[in-house]
Amino acid sequence: MKVHSICLVIASVGCLLLGLNAGQAPRSAIRVMVLTGASDLPYHDWRITTSFLRKALEDSGGFEVKILEDVREFSGQRSADRDVLVLNYNGPRWGQQAEREIENAIRSGKGMIAVHGVSYGEFFGMEQKGGRWVGTNDPGWVAYAEMLGMTWKPENIGHARRHVFSVKWTEPNHPIARGLEPSFQADDELYHKMDLKPTAQVLATAYSDPAMGGTGREEPQIWTVAYGRGRVLHITLGHDVKAMQQPGFVAAFVRGTEWAATGKVPISTSQKRP
């Protein structure tokens, strides 16, 4: 992926987002902390994707981003000046203290965005054997599944072959989707067979084509969860930078981050669909 191509994509989406915010009064920057530092290489590279996510937020305007690569150091005091957390991580557990501090932060009103590869792993009590995730007697971080609004049976972890597919907004009046086109294009892995909790409100789905190894069903791709006073957005898309550079992903991620932090996404009347 050439750097100038990535910049052009983010810049074009930034113009869209600025257009959606046209006519709105200036607001204070939304303060973001990205929790990262490990991923299940070689499938996901947190170093490259974290840089892209940071740039997408900063280039859209209105976000100030910090990166925390050793999440064991997370504390309520350290995150006191942050409005929203972004999870871009798959690795060892963070320890009881850090995990408790994170769930307390969300429960007390901070927002959280969970991106793609956070959907399985040690937080769910799994371990890798022979290159596959398997279940154990360890329940994992119980609050994690509650915050994300889902679980995924190890035998069901998978996706259709990577391809270009359409993601449809099923809740077009939700603040994240309001004013956007009814669907957007993804070039990604289409996760399937997840078990969503009753607390999950699905915002977008995609058809999992059997011809591509899919289930033949509409599979949830983006949903929200209320956790205490906090707002959580789970985006299953975003396998790599090529997937993240799609304008639909950038718009969903940036607008979702604003919604998780504030509960709203400004939109000008001129940008609303007829």
List the helices and strands and how they pair.
Blueprint: H1 3-20, E1 30-35, H2 46-60, E2 63-68, E3 84-87, H3 96-107, E4 111-115, E5 126-129, E6 132-135, H4 142-148, E7 150-151, E8 163-169, E9 183-188, E10 195-196, E11 200-207, E12 218-227, E13 230-235, H5 241-244, H6 247-262
Parallel strand pairs: 1-2, 1-3, 3-4, 4-13
Antiparallel strand pairs: 5-6, 7-10, 8-9, 8-11, 11-12, 12-13
Helix pairs in contact: 1-2, 1-6
Description:
The protein is α/β, with parallel strands linked by helices and 274 residues long. It has a single domain, classed as 3-Layer(aba) Sandwich (Rossmann fold), CATH 3.40.50.880. The relative contact order is 0.18. It has a 9-stranded mixed β-sheet, with helices on both faces. A two-stranded antiparallel sheet has the order 5-6. 26% of the residues lie in helices and 26% in strands. A hairpin with a 2-residue loop joins strand 12 and strand 13.
Number of helices, counting only DSSP H or I runs of 4 residues or more: 6
Mean residue pLDDT: 88
Would you state the CATH class? Alpha Beta
Rounded Rg:
18 Å
Q: Provide the CATH superfamily.
A: Class I glutamine amidotransferase (GATase) domain
In what order do the strands lie side by side in the largest sheet? 2-1-3-4-13-12-11-8-9
Strand content: 25-35%
For the terminal residues, how far apart are their CA atoms? 36 Å
Number of domains: 1
Low-confidence stretches: 1-12, 14-26, 268-274
Biggest sheet character? 9 strands, mixed
Question: What's the CATH architecture name?
Answer: 3-Layer(aba) Sandwich
Say what the CATH topology is. Rossmann fold
